[in-house]
Design goal:
It is a single chain. With 330 residues, the protein is of the alpha/beta class. The protein has one domain (5-259): TPP-binding domain (Rossmann fold), CATH 3.40.50.1220. The protein contains ten helices and nine strands. The chain has helices spanning 11-25, 63-66, 69-74, 76-86, 96-106, 121-125, 151-156, 183-195, 245-252, 261-329; strands at 29-33, 110-115, 130-132, 135-142, 148-149, 170-174, 198-202, 223-226, 239-241. The strands form two sheets. A six-stranded parallel beta sheet has the order 3-2-1-7-8-9, sandwiched between helices. A three-stranded antiparallel beta sheet has the order 5-4-6. Strand 2, helix 6 and strand 3 form a beta-alpha-beta unit. Helix 5 runs parallel beside helix 9.
Length: 330
């Protein structure tokens, strides 16, 4: 869905330029994303026409009911049948949106990436600031002893995955309906937004709580919405763009990635080390040359001294002999 303004010639380009300028002016950007960020990686969202909630579950239950805590407890077999088919995409890879956000992070502007997705794509792209509100399918644990398992362990089996240590049920570390989000994740997300000078919300219809309310913690009105469909914040946001989030972010975020301080420091250290080594080698060579000259000089002196001594020795007997003769003559 597009806004009426987006239909005017040049309106989209003007909006992209405006977003570029907002990013340029900002130093503490926070991104809040939903399922729409991952659709370009081949992972369906939940609420669109082709979303998971509008697909056939393959069971006699609605998808929205299957991914609830009470259903997981009552029908684990059916839950895992649906879970493996509809919620896990191990071959999915980061798209333009994920990569653009990582560039923004490396430029020092993006301070937090808050995601409602459970696919780990932000981290695969290289993000180090991701806050996962709803967990990840890549983490699994035994409900009885807490033993941890990876995604492959859950996918390769059939039926309900069991713990190898105690036999308990292994469940995904994701937040199901009827379950509470981790307080630490919510706190970190809110803290980041309170510090932000620009909040970019993308790929989400803003209908899932509490993420839908996070914009209220922003201390300014600098909110940008990038989503194909409309949201309740469209008219309140500073800028609203109804377009592909991957295309928009890839266009407005510079391709430039500054060299890391660590790399620069390492290079400087290596150069310094090479300079020191060269200086040491030069100094060592100089010392050796000086030492060589001194040694040669000493040898030369040592060689000359015996010759002089010999000459004196030869003269003395002659003088003595002459003196004897003179005395006798007297």
């Amino acid at each position: 869905m597009e806004t009426r303004l987006d239909r005017y010639e040049g309106a989209r380009e003007k909006k992209l330029e405006q977003l570029k300028q907002l990013i340029k002016e900002s130093n503490y950007i926070v991104f809040l994303g939903g399922a729409g960020v991952s659709t370009e990686s081949g992972i369906p969202d939940f609420r669109s026409g082709e979303g998971i909630f509008n697909q056939e579950s393959g069971l006699s239950y609605r998808p929205v009911d299957i991914i609830s805590h009470s259903f997981f407890e009552a029908h684990p077999e059916e839950f895992y049948d649906f879970y493996r088919r509809k919620l896990c995409y191990p071959k999915a890879r980061p798209n333009k949106a994920h990569k653009a956000l990582v560039r923004l992070e490396k430029q020092g502007k993006l301070k937090a990436t808050i995601t409602q997705n459970i696919d780990n794509l932000h981290q695969m792209a290289g993000s180090t600031t991701t806050i996962e509100l709803h967990g990840s399918v890549f983490r699994n644990y035994c409900v009885d002893c807490g033993e941890k398992y990876d995604l492959n362990y859950v996918l390769k089996g059939k039926g309900v995955p069991r713990c190898q240590k105690c036999g308990g049920i292994v469940r995904p570390d994701v937040v199901l309906y009827e379950e509470h989000l981790e307080h630490e994740n919510i706190d970190n997300a809110v803290k980041a937004i309170k510090k932000a000078d620009l909040l970019i919300i993308g790929g989400t219809s803003l209908t899932v709580y509490p993420a839908a309310t996070f914009a209220q913690f922003l201390k300014s009105d600098r909110v940008v919405i990038i989503n194909k469909s409309s949201t309740y914040l469209d008219l309140q946001a500073m800028l609203t763009i109804h377009d592909s989030i991957g295309t928009v972010l890839d266009t407005v975020i510079s391709k430039y990635i500054p060299r890391s301080k660590t790399a620069s420091k390492s290079k400087s250290s290596k150069t310094s080390s090479k300079t020191k080594t060269a200086a040491t080698t030069k100094s060592s060579s100089s010392k050796k040359a000086t030492t060589g000259k001194k040694t040669a000089s000493k040898k030369e002196t040592a060689t000359k001294k015996p010759a002089a001594k010999k000459a004196q020795t030869e003269k003395k007997p002659a003088a003595k002999k002459a003196g004897t003769k003179a005395k006798k003559k007297d």
